Each structure stands twice: as structure tokens, then as C-alpha cells.
Amino acid sequence: MKTIQTKNIIAFDEKYLISVIQLWNEYDTMSVLVAYSELKRRKCDIPIHILEEMIDFFVKKNILI
Q1: In whole angstroms, how far apart are CA 53 and each of 7, 12, 13, 18?
Q2: CB of 21 closer than 8 Å to CB of 32
Q3: Tens digit of pLDDT for each residue in 13-47?
Q4: How far is CA 55 from the centre of its chain?
């Protein structure tokens, strides 16, 4: 499983952060949550299909939102 170091998150562009969400099965839970949080912090327009991926992630990981 891949991990994103939280301290390095600001170096990643939006496309990379979105790819983490799209490939959430390959990343640990915290990395996906950090990627999503960073996109929200930057006030990025998150495409609907990425939001749907996040919903799928939350359901599969039993994370209540």
C-alpha cells in the first residue's frame, strides 16, 4: 500500500491528488483522506466522478461522513 507523507502534501498538484482518490485501493486510508482534505483546503473544483469515488471509499472503509 502506498502512503503520502502529510508534510509533503503541498508539493503535489491537483491532478496527483485526484489520482490518489481515483486509485484509493492502492493507498492507505489516511493518504486518501489527506489528498481529499488538501483539495478541499485549496478550494478546488472537484469533479462529480471524484466525489463519487470518495463516497465509494467512505462506504467500503466504513467511514461515517
Answers
A1: 24, 19, 19, 10
A2: yes
A3: 999 999 999 999 999 999 999 999 999 999 999 99
A4: 11
- The Cα-based distances of 14 to 10, 19, 59, 64, 65 in angstroms read 10, 9, 24, 25, 23
pTM, whole model, 2 decimals? 0.91
Written as nine digits, the cell of 36 is 481529499
Q: How many CB atoms lie within 10 A of CB 39?
A: 20
- The residue among 43, 47, 42, 51 whose CA lies nearest residue 24 is 51
Per-residue cell: 24: 484509493
Identity (one letter) of the amino acid at 15? K
Q: What is d(CA 4, CA 48) in angstroms, rounded to the nearest whole number?
A: 23
Q: Is 10's pLDDT higher than 80?
A: yes
